[in-house]
Design brief:
alpha/beta, 7 helices, 6 strands
Length: 265
Amino acid sequence: MPRAPQQYAEPYPHPSGATPPAIPAEFVPNHVAVVMDGNGRWANARGLPRVEGHKQGEKSLLDVVAGAVQIGVKHVSAYAFSTENWKRSPDEVRFLMNFNRDVIRRRRDEMSSWGVRIRWAGRRPKLWGSVIKELQVAEEMTRANDRCTLTMCVNYGGRAEIADAAAAIAREAAAGRLNPDRVSERTVQKYLDEPDLPDVDLFLRSSGEQRTSNFMIWQAAYAELVFLPEPWPDVDRRHLWRAVEEYARRDRRYGGAVDATPPTP
């Protein structure tokens, strides 16, 4: 007997009344990777402590996830804390650890009601046990949700992920369980943090920086890149929707030639 479809709540509307653009589902990116850059600069420009930028950025993340649900994006991966972020001041690292833990705790029920599944990608070493616990609780309580998956990348780095996969493959080969001559891209994929995470279609970064900063470098090998000039605290679902429109306009999404004129969604 087929299982009845899940009934989920709709995300809160945007205060402006904005609604998602009408884009055919086949041209909506399946997986959007988000680099939430510019929190500190946003705060500094306003004479505020850097942590205030991170606090404001929480609202932006929730709103972007709401927009992803509304437009039909199935996967959002958020760069919440990188392996390089440990180089920041001890006070900021301490704040970010507490903040990531508390954001997950504060927002998981609301996102779960929308049908969002929460997952974690990243390294365990150095990461606070209390942060790991909250991530695991969120993973378990949202496991059955299938409307959209939010992967929180905490203590994550693209090179670290590939290095860890290579180490695991080397151990399997040394134990005689894997033939080194048979290692392929598919083999590497199996040993990544989230092996079933699909390739990134749209890579979105805020605050004007035009680089990927070691995020999802395996998964985003063929991603379309969109860079926003606004710092992350000024970003909301409307920016995501405009990026999705840009993604949908690019020629290859329509199977056309490079010099073809793309149709209007």
